[in-house]
Specification:
With 187 residues, the chain is α+β, with helices and mostly antiparallel strands. It contains four helices and eleven strands; from the N terminus they run αββαβαββββββαββ. It has a single domain, classed as Umud Fragment, subunit A, CATH 2.10.109.10.
Length: 187
């Protein structure tokens, strides 16, 4: 019986170590997630899985123009390290059993503005620093327009869905703080 207990203890130790390594990888480096909703059509469709590099989030760097990012849309509250620990566990559990990861506050969007950029929305187009963006990835011409201009603050990005007429994004919640960018899509 003691050899059985010893072997069971070794197995348990290996399982706990593997789980800890997987958690570290998911929190700091690499994470799968699932696309929810239709805001990124035609680029992505609901239920598709994407894989994120979390290095941007871990190092506090900003993504570049056109990067597809996953954000925490709750910009009215500060993010905590506990959020970074809880979300990967929740995402993996729901991906395994099916369902939606992390709730409706985790959004997949495209970066259209970086700190200091001045954005305008008119004539079905997005203008960055006075020049219309060429966006071959959008689903259809945007119906949204705004008489004013938006300046992206330091340490923030401005994100939009590719399905501009069916997307909750920075037009409605404001620019996204760097610590709310959870990762950049790898594939």
């Amino acid at each position: 019986m003691s050899s059985f207990m010893r072997e069971a203890g070794e197995w348990l130790q290996s399982i706990v170590l593997a789980a800890a390594i997987a958690l570290v990888i998911n929190v700091f480096f690499f994470q799968p997630t699932k696309v929810l909703g239709h805001s990124m059509e035609p680029t992505f469709h609901e239920g598709q899985r994407i894989y994120l590099s979390k290095v941007v989030h871990t190092l506090g760097r900003l993504p570049g123009y056109g990067d597809i990012v996953v954000i925490d849309s709750r910009v009215d509250r500060p993010r905590k390290f506990a959020d970074d620990l809880a979300e990967p566990v929740s995402n993996v559990a729901t991906l395994v059993r099916g369902g939606s990861p992390s709730g409706h506050y985790i959004w997949v969007k495209r970066v259209v503005g970086l700190p200091g950029d001045v954005l305008e929305f008119k004539g079905g187009k997005v203008y960055r620093n006075g020049k219309a963006l060429t966006e071959n990835y959008v689903k259809e011409p945007m119906r949204y327009s705004s008489p004013g201009k938006v300046t992206v603050p330091p340490g923030h990005v401005f994100v939009m869905g590719d399905n501009r007429n069916n997307s909750s994004d920075s037009r409605f919640i404001g620019s996204i703080p760097a610590d709310h960018i959870l990762g950049v899509m790898l594939f």
